[in-house]
């Protein structure tokens, strides 16, 4: 199955604009679901937290799932402003993005990410764990950086919970409007082999091979196909292009058409 996840960050600025984008994606995403074999593709929209509930209502009878961009390390307590994973699950949220580099840049470290993952899987949410290096150097130290981040973020996660786990490889240098370019499909392929080896070492062959590895970082409707066919991506975590219904729908179609 290919997974296509849209990370809307703090956009759009109004609910009505968000509903318009979601409606257009719903139309095209539903067509992709109907056209493909059952279970071939899954589309997830992760809007800003305050739009999660209304979008869940809007997308209720569609194949598009709604995800969250963050959840806290525990379900309850005096933690002003935090989001309970259990409350997200109760609303109907299925997925949560954790360890995104933009949250790590705000101070979230591997220990907190690991705690959040445990709390999210306990609430029965599927976790999209983001990992990725700051820069690429000739010496290949980016492998060490990603390996360390992966191991530390997954500390304490039992093998029995890996069915809830999805990895998104997002090289930080390729994310966002300031990125010079996307990674190349060969960059992704190389890193996904490394990540896979780490997952197999950590969880064993069967569980390690079953964990999807997505690519994220300046994915658009022109480069998506290459990451699927040459890179072997299990899908995408898409930022900017997921706010453009036409572009995002073409990315969904590329995933639907891939094997
Ligand atoms: C992201 O937000 O995870 C992301 C990959 O953003 P963009 O696609 O805009 O680079």
Which descriptors apply to this entry?
42% helix, 259 residues, single chain, gluconeogenesis, TIM Barrel, cytoplasm, Triosephosphate_isomerase, 15% strand, binds phosphoenolpyruvate, glycolysis, alpha/beta
Can you offer a commentary on this structure?
The protein has 259 residues and is of the alpha/beta class. It contains ten helices and eight strands. The relative contact order is 0.15. The structure holds phosphoenolpyruvate. Residues 7, 170, 175-176, 179, 216-219, 237-241 line the site of phosphoenolpyruvate (PEP). Its EC number is 5.3.1.1. Pfam families: TIM. It catalyses: D-glyceraldehyde 3-phosphate = dihydroxyacetone phosphate.
In short:
With 259 residues, the protein is of the alpha/beta class. It has helices spanning 15-35, 52-58, 85-91, 101-104, 110-122, 141-153, 185-203, 205-210, 224-229, 245-257, and strands at residues 2-7, 41-46, 65-68, 95-98, 126-131, 165-169, 213-216, 235-238.
């Amino acid at each position: 199955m290919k997974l296509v996840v849209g990370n809307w960050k703090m956009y759009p600025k109004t609910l009505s604009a968000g509903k318009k984008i979601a409606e257009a994606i719903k139309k095209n995403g539903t067509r992709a679901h109907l056209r493909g074999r059952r279970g071939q593709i899954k589309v997830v929209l992760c809007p800003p937290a305050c739009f999660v509930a209304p979008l869940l209502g809007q997308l209720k009878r569609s194949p598009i799932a709604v995800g969250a961009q963050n959840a806290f390390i525990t379900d309850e307590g005096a933690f002003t402003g935090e989001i309970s994973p259990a409350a997200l699950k109760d609303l109907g949220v299925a997925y949560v993005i954790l360890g995104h580099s933009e949250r790590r840049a705000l101070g979230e470290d591997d220990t907190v990410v690991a705690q959040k993952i445990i709390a999210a899987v306990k609430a029965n949410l599927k976790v999209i764990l983001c990992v990725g290096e700051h820069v690429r150097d000739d010496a290949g130290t980016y492998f060490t950086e990603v390996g360390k981040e992966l191991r530390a973020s997954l500390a304490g996660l039992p093998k029995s919970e890996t069915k809830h786990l999805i990895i998104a490889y997002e090289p930080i240098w390729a994310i966002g409007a300031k990125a010079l370019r996307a990674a190349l499909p060969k960059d992704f392929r190389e890193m996904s082999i490394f990540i896979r080896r780490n997952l197999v070492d950590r969880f064993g062959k069967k569980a390690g091979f079953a964990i999807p590895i997505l690519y994220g970082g300046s994915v658009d409707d022109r480069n998506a196909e290459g990451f699927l066919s040459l890179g072997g991506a299990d899908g995408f975590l898409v930022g900017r292009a997921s706010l453009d219904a036409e572009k995002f729908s073409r990315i969904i179609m590329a995933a639907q058409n891939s094997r």
